[in-house]
Amino acid sequence: xxxxxxxxxxxxxxxxxxxxxxxxxxxxxxxxxxxxxxxxxxxxxxxxxxxxxxxxxxxxxxxxxxxxxxxxxxxxxxxxxxxxxxxxxxxxxxxxxxxxxxxxxxxxxxxxxxxxxxxxxxxxxxxxxxxxxxxxxxxxxxxxxxxxxxxxxxxxxxxxxxxxxxxxxxxxxxxxxxxxxxxxxxxxxxxxxxxxxxxxxxxxxxxxxxxxxxxxxxxxxxxxxxxxxxxxxxxxxxxxxxxxxxxxxxxxxxxxxxxxxxxxxxxxxxxxxxxxxxxxxxxxxxxxxxxxxxxxxxxxxxxxxxxxxxxxxxxxxxxxxxxxxxxxxxxxxxxxxxxxxxxxxxxxxxxxxxxxxxxxxxxxxxxxxxxxxxxxxxxxxxxxxxxxxxxxxxxxxxxxxxxxxxxxxxxxxxxxxxxxxxxxxxxxxxxxxxxxxxxxxxxxxxxxxxxxxxxxxxxxxxxxxxxxxxxxxxxxxxxxxxxxxx
Length: 486
Ligand SMILES: Cc1cc2nc3c(=O)[nH]c(=O)nc-3n(C[C@H](O)[C@H](O)[C@H](O)COP(=O)(O)OP(=O)(O)OC[C@H]3O[C@@H](n4cnc5c(N)ncnc54)[C@H](O)[C@@H]3O)c2cc1C
Description:
With about 475 residues, this protein is an alpha/beta fold. The protein has 15 helices and 19 strands. It starts with a strand and ends with a helix. Flavin-adenine dinucleotide binds near residues 10, 39 and 418.
């Protein structure tokens, strides 16, 4: 049995606590903030309940696996609900389309928009299926530093996918003619906080996963997943502490020895698992002034508004995306100029459309989000007001007037608040961006050079987003089982 200290109580930290407690280790998890869950968190006011982080999950099988690793059945803890449609997309020219899970219906939508794109869609599905097979065998389920086994070698035969190694936006343009379908597919790299114009086409696996496995929600809100995993970790003996920021990791002779908490407590550790942003390891290990991930390497942050509407909005779907008029210009402003766009694409999540327990009687819970650069802009009151007015201007211009009504709850999350709440440099939601091949695949290793030191979560391998973070916890705990034997 090893003494394991986990730094951070995000989804990856909690899933690791569960898996490592099941392996029989003595696990102590230290979360700096007042609640568990990290970015996957919750906010409640006047009877309105919001998720403040993830709003859509894919790959439900990975969630089932996490519970199964502790001998539990997910359905005994959480009711996962497949969304139908997954999302509605709205363009400034008035075009609207729904992406549902029925393939014949979706093909009809594509045919209506542009008959030539039916062929492009099939090509995309074929490419996505091969990419998923390749990713599963090589990247998603194993640590990149481990020696290849026969499965990896077998997967290499899929590598000559000429398209997969190209530029994401270029491949989308090759596959689709309709400007609407192009824009719809261009959006997916934002699921990992990246620009479609800079990401590799391998990220087409993201839309493929949504088409193949659907988009899901958990009744009661996605925070239920955090609560259930935390309860299982505790039941297996893990100690989960909140308000326990770690200030330093101590090592001797190339091996971790202990962690130092803010209040001066020292916890002896054979194994330390970093669930906070991996770029903060340098600060914890040697240099208290290190600022972590440099701005040009950061994934995007977000500008988020939580609003409780006093009445229902019939016809509104669980997820709606209101596209900006010029997507490429929007990304130039986000990435090249590092500023909040004049005309942002706005994502509206209304979980109360699927679950009335989230609202007090009538009404809707709205989670309204736009991408924002992960830079240390001031985000003072004036900047925040200006960003909010641009978000609302896009919604009004796209015909969404529900926000004109009185809003009884209004919470705003700026990149600066995200940075401070979760200790992510600049509020970069997904750690390093996934630009280029290196950015997407050469992420901080789960097993670090200092012996006994591991990384888990979205800033490390294999990357951000809830299912990937759970896979990260699986990889890291398997590495610990392999390398940290008594
Ligand atoms: C607004 C928003 C929307 C999102 N939407 C989606 C979505 O729809 N679907 C999806 O799959 N994903 C989404 N995500 C991403 C998803 O939330 C993350 O990828 C995932 O939750 C990250 O989990 P993690 O394990 O990496 O830990 P994190 O959530 O990053 O948590 C790390 C924890 O470590 C703690 N910590 C850091 N340093 C220290 C220290 N020194 N001492 C103690 N504790 C420390 C932090 O306080 C934090 O709680 C979204 C995120 C945000 C913010």
